[in-house]
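Hi all, long-time lurker, first post. I run a small reading group and we've been trying to get comfortable going from sequence to structure in the token notation. Rather than ask abstract questions, I figured I'd post a concrete chain and ask someone more experienced to write out its structure so we can walk through it together at our next meeting. Sequence below, copied exactly:
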Amino acid sequence: MKIEITYPKTKKDKMIRKIKIHNRDLWSLDTNLAYIIHKSLVKFRKFQGQDGIGYPASFSTQIGKEEFSQEQEDIDVLTWIQCVDKMIYSFKAIIDDEILSPEHVKNFNNENEEARKRSGFDNYLDFLNSEACHVIFEKYKNLIEEHENNIKEGLELFSKHFRSLYI
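-- Answer (accepted) --
Happy to help. Here is the structure in token form:
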């Protein structure tokens, strides 16, 4: 996949977008796009909250109010930044392809490996169908569901605010 954007040098010039997508890019299109979107959101996030950088009007609680509150404005901006952070989390999770959030993956993998060894399974696929594996999955079930819900929330926010991702 190759993306090249040429920005106009003068007012008469046009922006040129060249996008080349190879067949192999389609193999895991969701993951390939997640890399691009994640990196873009991380860079976008760095600008949020800076002077002169706006945020979506839908996050403003002051529209239609007679008096302006800087404190409330700061809260509105922070709410937008938290929304962007949730989007970033989702695309990072897609890239990482883990069933748990990063802070729980290591413990889960260690417990899984220890249980596999204790159970005597040499083949990991056989272990996956065993009761020992199901016990560990049951232990982490709520964390797995929480992680999936966080991914879903971030993707929904991305969809909802897609047209607000500009500086």
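A couple of things your group might point at:
Residues 108 and 140 are 8 Å apart (CA to CA).
Residues 41-164 form one domain.
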